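Onboarding guide, step 5: your first structure request.
Type a short instruction followed by the sequence, for example:

Predict the 3D structure of this protein.
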Amino acid sequence: MEKDIDRILIPHEALAARIREMAGEIATAYNSAEAQITIVTILSGAVIFLADLIRQMPMKMKIGLITVSSYAGATTASRGAKLMKDLNVDVRDRDVLIVDDIFDTGGTLRLVQGLLRERQPRSLKTAVLLRKPAKNPPDVKVDFVGFDIEDHFVVGYGLDYNDHYRNFPDIAVLKPEVYA
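The system replies with structure tokens like these:
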């Protein structure tokens, strides 16, 4: 894998530190006796982020899973968000936190936020590990952000290219010739 990496953008030590901070911010936001939090994770890219995040959150929670695909196979261009597997838990009257790996064009989050709003949660917030501010649409709201990054195609820590590199421990930029 290392031979395909152009450079490390965010090392795993920085990821761990920021995720601890984010967990504290989220716990503070949901610090009420009546909070009924359900974390809805968008698979597959956010699974590593989710695992590390929830281990740092000292609160009761339920976990829901939803699968959305935006990239087909060996491509770096989104083909539009498509629901692949619907949510496996009821979120009505619950405080819902969507957890996703990356916020760039907003297609995935727009789709998932819309689906969840229809199911009448008590509240709806969103946490993302990475955000590309230059590409974010104004109609998609994100409440918690790990890191703002420039518009690079990144892999590692759950993010993939053609279903590879998810297990790379850092956030890295691929060499252009790998995906060109």
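Each response can be followed by summary notes, for example: DSSP finds four helices and nine strands in the chain.
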